[in-house]
Design brief:
seven-stranded mixed sheet; 235 residues; globular; 9 strands; 31% helix
Length: 235
């Protein structure tokens, strides 16, 4: 018997089903969606979209529902099988099944270990997808381990801690790991890559120094509270 999951949250003016297996969508993240949509509309063709740790699928769903054309492929990745189950519910509710590939992966690891997943990687389709742009979106856990002082009690009780807390030092370690993986991805697939990430309110200076040291091009965007919330990074 098919269970009827009802929408209970809103993000980017779209309804979503959310439970305690995933993050609750927040308005702060809408700036990331807005900038990704603008980038896609500027490029307008030959785009592969990847959402890393997709959670409820709200970011990629909002993007696909608001762009003017179909993408070549979109990949929805998550380390949590529970989160992928919730993402699948929302994908089906928004009729996006034929535009999505759901994959269980730690960041981009699955693409680095299995070259056959990307359609332009090997075999009979080789060369068909040359000169494409890979756009990656990511809202990764970025709060210092057990930093309860800056977290609302309701969040601690109702959202998975794996989605909130990560690492102990810079609070940016998981993004650092993702960025190094993107360098490896670019070596393998030879594509243009643009990354959009969401950061915590106190990560601006550290992230800027990290990106400068790698000689990457990047741009920050502020949320509705005038906090540097989204970063666009070009590889």
């Amino acid at each position: 018997m098919k269970i009827n999951f009802e929408f209970n949250e809103e993000f980017y003016s779209l309804p979503f089903y959310v439970d305690n297996r995933v993050l609750i969508p927040r308005n702060d993240t809408e700036i990331l969606v807005e900038k990704a949509i603008k980038e896609i509309d500027l490029i307008w063709k030959n785009i592969i979209l990847i959402d890393v740790w997709t959670w409820s699928s709200c970011i990629l769903t909002a993007i696909l529902k608001n762009i003017r054309f179909d993408l070549i492929n979109s990949f929805w990745l998550d380390i949590s099988l529970d989160a992928l189950e919730v993402a699948k519910i929302n994908i089906e509710k928004h009729n996006l099944e034929n535009k999505t590939i759901l994959l269980n992966s730690d960041l981009l690891e699955i693409f680095l270990n299995n070259y056959s997943i990307f359609p332009f990687s090997k075999g009979e389709l080789e060369g068909v997808y040359e000169n494409k742009t890979i756009i990656i979106t990511a809202n990764l856990p970025y709060i210092k381990d057990w930093d309860f002082e800056n977290i609302d009690k309701n969040v601690l009780e109702n959202e998975p801690h794996i989605a909130l807390f990560w690492w102990e030092k810079t609070w940016f370690e998981l993004y650092e790991k993702l960025i190094w993986q993107i360098f490896d991805l670019k070596k393998i697939y030879k594509q243009n890559i643009i990354l959009f990430i969401e950061i915590w309110f106190d990560q601006y200076y550290y992230s800027r120094e990290f990106l400068q040291n790698l000689w990457l091009k990047f741009e920050y965007f502020k949320d509705l509270n005038w906090i540097n919330r989204c970063v666009k990074i070009i590889f």
